[in-house]
Design goal:
Blueprint: H1 5-14, E1 25-30, E2 35-37, E3 47-55, E4 61-68, E5 74-76, E6 86-88, E7 94-96, E8 106-113, E9 117-127, E10 134-136, E11 142-143, E12 148-158, E13 163-168, E14 171-172, E15 180-188, E16 195-203, E17 213-222, E18 225-230, E19 234-235, E20 238-239, E21 245-250, E22 256-257, E23 262-268, E24 277-280, E25 288-290, E26 293-296, E27 305-311, E28 317-322, E29 324-325, E30 327-332, E31 335-340, E32 348-353, E33 357-363, E34 366-367, E35 383-391, E36 398-419, E37 426-435, E38 439-445, E39 448-456, E40 463-472, E41 476-483, E42 488-495, H2 512-536, H3 540-553, H4 563-577
Parallel strand pairs: 1-9, 11-20, 22-29, 31-36
Antiparallel strand pairs: 2-7, 3-4, 3-8, 4-5, 6-7, 8-9, 10-12, 12-16, 13-14, 13-17, 15-16, 17-18, 17-19, 21-23, 23-26, 24-25, 24-27, 27-28, 30-32, 33-34, 33-35, 35-36, 36-37, 37-40, 38-41, 39-40, 41-42
Helix pairs in contact: 3-4
Amino acid sequence: MKISGSKILKIVSSLSVSPLALGLYTVNAIYGDTITMPCPLEVPDGLMFGKWKYEMPNGSPVFIAFRSSTKKNVQYDDVPDYKDRLSLSENYTLSIKNARISDEKRFVCMLVTEDDVSEEPTIVRVFKQPSQPEILHQANLLETEKLQMLGECVSRDSYPEGNVTWYKNGRVLHPVDDVVVINLQKIVDRTTGLFTMTSSLQYMPTKEDLNAKFSCIVTYFGPSGQKTMQSEPVVFDVHYPTEKVTIQVLPQSSTIKEGDNITLKCSGNGNPPPQEFLFYIPGETEGIRSSDTYVMTDVRRNATGEYKCSLTDKSMMDSTTITVHYLDLQLTPSGEVTKQIGEALPVSCTISSSRNATVFWIKDNTRMQTSPSFSSLQYQDAGNYVCETTLQEVEGLRKRQTLKLIVEGKPQIKMTKKTNTNKMSKTIICHVEGFPKPAVQWTVTGSGSIVNKTEETKYVNGKFSSKIVIAPEENVTLTCIAENELERTVTSMNVSAINIPEYDEPEDRGDDNSEKVNDQAKLIVGIVVGLLLVALIAGVVYWLYVKKSKTASKHVDKDLGNIEENKKLEENNHKSET
């Protein structure tokens, strides 16, 4: 059935939805912001136009915006409260600029076709955060045993109205007859509709309220629920008489040591506090008149004793005992000490203190497990020693003395040699001990090419080694020369030609020596077995054996390194002749 345009307008002007209907769409807005209300209806086919209205308290509608779906034009009704504040989009979303408290209404979106009129209400709620509460009309001071006005907590421009709560030191103040009296007023601005909350507090303080922090909190509602805002805390001066005198030692440390500065502070528990006191020092019969402090600088151990202070009329007094802790250390010997290797050096670190002290030794920045004892000095004993002591439970009281120990020694040399695995060269090592560090030189007597120049290991605990790699064509003599400020030491070693087998001396490496000797024995056994196998092979192998024997015979008449090498060469010559 079709409905004429005039009938549709009559229907639009008469329809309304009860504000008590359930499930209404709600839009929360912030005061001053833009209210955005999408039309809750789905735009139907054949839409002619859409309209927005709001409902008066008596239920009568007030139309405010119209948009035609065909002509694409927008019309806004002449409603003074919404002049120049409305905007209706193509999807029939209504926007209201500069939200006001008076915008809290029930708005209705209407969509009209030729056959039907659909409408859906939207509830607008406006919220305004109040100003931060502040405590005004504050009392200049508070006196004990007297109920007086402490101040007023004021929070302005809230919507909806808020509530105010007083706090002392973070705890809620509840009304108590003649002790805590609270009065709350809420005033609404007729123009803006905003609330101002004012809460006054009358309070009877006690002396414990000195330095107490009073504050107030306003509770209000926003779009997301209940919120709070707190004022800046306020501290009031509370006056009460002095009932007790107290003496303190500043700084407030459990221990005092020699060299500290001490301040004695005397105070009365009244407010305002007393300004002058009498201080009684050990050994003094009369009190010393002073302000609330008495200073002693660079105290010594003889300052230990009882100290007192009182009011100037001597009506009240308090006392305290001061103990000045001390710590003495004597290291013998100390400073720089030079000794020879093998000598003895007695060392002692003597402590004198006001209580038990902890003593420990440090060598070259590493803490030692035991005190040093030198019955026969070695190079590794050299270093920087520190005897340090601390007084238990006395912070900052520590003493230390140092000993720089130098262990000197003439150069000592031990030489070793070994044939390298490639059988083409030999490594000769000169193991050197001594301090100051000896300088090492090498000389070679005989014919042979140096494969690698000399290399030195790191100098540690007075020891290091220098090595040379050589490929001797004949027997040679290598000489290692080590020299420091104390002496020059020379040691030589004979080395056989590279093609002559010899027993290599193991390097001096502690527990590894036995393993290396075993390895060398295995190597000799292997060579012997190999020679026996060679003897069984005919043809080319026998020819190689003869050639090797002739090569060895060329070295028979040359000077060999030692008696055992000469014997080996004679045996080789004898075999070649037969």
